[in-house]
Each structure stands twice: as structure tokens, then as C-alpha cells.
Amino acid sequence: MSARRPPRATPTPCPCGLGAEYDACCGRYHRGDAVPPNAEALMRSRYTAYVMGNMDWVRQTWHPSTCPADLLPDTATRWLGLSVKAHSQQDDTHAEVEFVARYKVGGRAWRLHERSRFVREPRAAGEPPVWLYVDGDMIGEAS
After folding, report:
1. Which domain holds residue 35?
2. Contacts of 1 (CB under 8 A, 6+ apart)
């Protein structure tokens, strides 16, 4: 009689679009095992957090000066994909990421095209600086 192997857990692909498994990609940031090394990685992790309804991560990575008080998950939105168009770092503490996020609401498809601004700053005394989302300019949103 042969022993049966326990079923393997099916790896969950990361919604951020890099093609990696969630746990090894954005999941490590969401769990606090790692810090996103640049603004693009942070932006991808924020997109993934929106997909998964992880509003704690979205709030934690939003600069306090611009974070809305009423940040709630949007259960009507179904996120479909992310494409990063550009990532530019102006200096050690400022960067921009241009992206297109595709989504559906009520069966209608939309595209969110944004150029987001990020800053890198310490979260607490003695801790290394982290990237934070500040704001963004909509380049277009069309069906």
C-alpha cells in the first residue's frame, strides 16, 4: 500500500502582473516580510491590495497628508489587469509611476490611466525610509 501525498496548495498568481506567485511577490510586502524597494514595486503592491480588498495596506502606504479618511473597499469593482507604462525616479526621495489599470463595474469595462507621485520618507524614528503614494494625475479613464 502506498502512502498518499497530501495535495499541493495551488500557487496563487500575483495580480500585479509580474507573473510571480503572490506569496513571493506582493504578498511579502502585505505580510510585512519585506519593504517595496522602489515606487513601482509599491504601486504594484497597492494595485494588488485593491484587487484583494486589503485596504489596510492601501492606507498604510498612502501619505498621511493626502490619504482620505473614508477609505473603504469597493466591492462593485472587479480589477482585470495592470500595465506599468513608465517608472521614473527624480531623486532619492521622489518618483513617478505611470500605469493603466483595467477594471469592470456593473459589467462595463473601464481603463484607469494615471501618473502617480511617490515620496520616500521614514515612518518612525530610527526606521529605514519607505515609499508612500502621495497623489496622481488622471491621464484618462475611458470605456
Report:
1. 22-69+76-142
2. none
Q: Which residues contact 47 (CB under 8 A, 6 or more apart)?
A: 15, 16, 79, 82, 99, 101
Q: How confident is the model at residue 5 (pLDDT cuts 50, 70, 90)?
A: low
Instruction: Classify burial at 2, counting beta carbons within 10 Å of its beta carbon; exposed 0-12, middle 13-18, buried 19 or more.
Output: exposed
- Nearest one of 89, 103, 80 to 40, comparing CA atoms: 89
Q: Is 65 domain-assigned? A: yes
Give ∠ CA 4-9-11 in degrees, rounded to 5: 145
How many domains does one find in the chain?
A: 1
- Report d(CA 32, CA 45) in Å as an integer: 12
| pTM of structure | 0.89
